[in-house]
Design a protein that fits this description.
The protein is α+β, with helices and mostly antiparallel strands and 75 residues long. The chain has 2 helices and 3 strands, in the order βαβαβ. The chain is globular. Keywords: Ribonucleoprotein, Ribosomal protein.
Length: 75
């Protein structure tokens, strides 16, 4: 099984991030469940696109083991 989790190294930039939930929040801490919901993620495999601003990067770095982050080409 491949490990797709994101390390805590997502940085603020002008890029758009494609954030996908890859693991369940069941059994996790309440703040991690709240963070996933704030990102707009509702279930495993659900993907959202967000700007890489300070708020989004902070949330992604809170739950790196539950999400996969990819930078989207804006062109």
């Amino acid at each position: 099984m491949a490990n797709f989790s994101t390390r805590k190294n997502v940085a603020v930039s002008d890029a758009t991030l494609e954030i996908t939930q890859i693991k369940s929040a069941i059994g996790g801490k309440q703040n991690q469940r709240d963070t996933l919901r704030s990102l707009g993620l509702k279930r495993i495999g659900h993907t959202v696109n967000r700007k890489a601003d300070e708020v989004t990067v902070g949330m992604v770095n809170t739950v790196p083991h539950l999400v996969k982050v990819e930078e989207v080409n804006n062109g």
